[in-house]
Amino acid sequence: MAKIDPVAITHDGYYKCEVVTTHGHFYHGYHLKVLVPPEVTLFQLENGTIVCRAAAGKPAAQISWTPGGDCHTVEEPLGNDTVTVQSSCCWEDHRVSNVSCSVSHLTGNRSLSIERNSGVQSAVYVKTVHIILPVLIFLVIVVSICLWKIGVCRKCKLKKREANSVAEEDEMQPYASYTEKNNPLYDTVSQVKRSEVLQNEADGLCLHTSYITGI
């Protein structure tokens, strides 16, 4: 009879007992499987997610939730043939105030409960607002500066166009005066106009003289 006390994970394996008698050889084999109960914890994160962890169990534990939610379970094998199972769960329904985590294992089952802390979710919301608000203010300032620069550039371009128009008019006026002075046709028209004025004055003088003589 063999007795192992205390039992450790390293004792896991196949054992064979062999007996030799006058009636022959007799042996019996036995596979020893060492079970390790997991350490179960249940806690809530800052973002409101509730985590149920069954650490260093052999074999891996099974985790379930009441009520069911949006859950994600991962297994992490350890170096001594044990496995840590962690399940993270969240609920969109704010009416869920109490949740339970059930851990099933060959060494026994455990169930833990926790109250959902709505204050944690509020704190996360406030923290998110504090992060987003400065970013929005910065973006508004940048956009305002860009719009101001665009307006200044437009005003500068408009002033340049007006200055160019005035300069073109100033350049055209001397050219027009020079053309009038040096154009023979312009001189002829001027002489005709002067002759007409003198003729009108002479006719007016003659009429005035005739009127006086008649009297």
Automatic annotation (TrEMBL):
Transmembrane segments: 131-151
GO cellular component terms attached to this protein's record: external side of plasma membrane
GO biological process: regulation of neuroinflammatory response
Membrane association type: Single-pass type I membrane protein
Compartment(s) where it occurs, according to its Swiss-Prot or TrEMBL record: Membrane
Main subcellular location of this protein, as a coarse class: membrane
Entries under PROSITE patterns matching the protein: IG_LIKE
Residues of the Ig-like domain: 38-113
Entry GO MF terms: signaling receptor activity
Keywords: Disulfide bond, Glycoprotein, Membrane, Receptor, Signal, Transmembrane, Transmembrane helix
UniProt cross-references to InterPro entries, sorted A to Z: CD200R, Ig-like_dom, Ig-like_dom_sf, Ig-like_fold
Family: Belongs to the CD200R family.
Record protein name field: Ig-like domain-containing protein
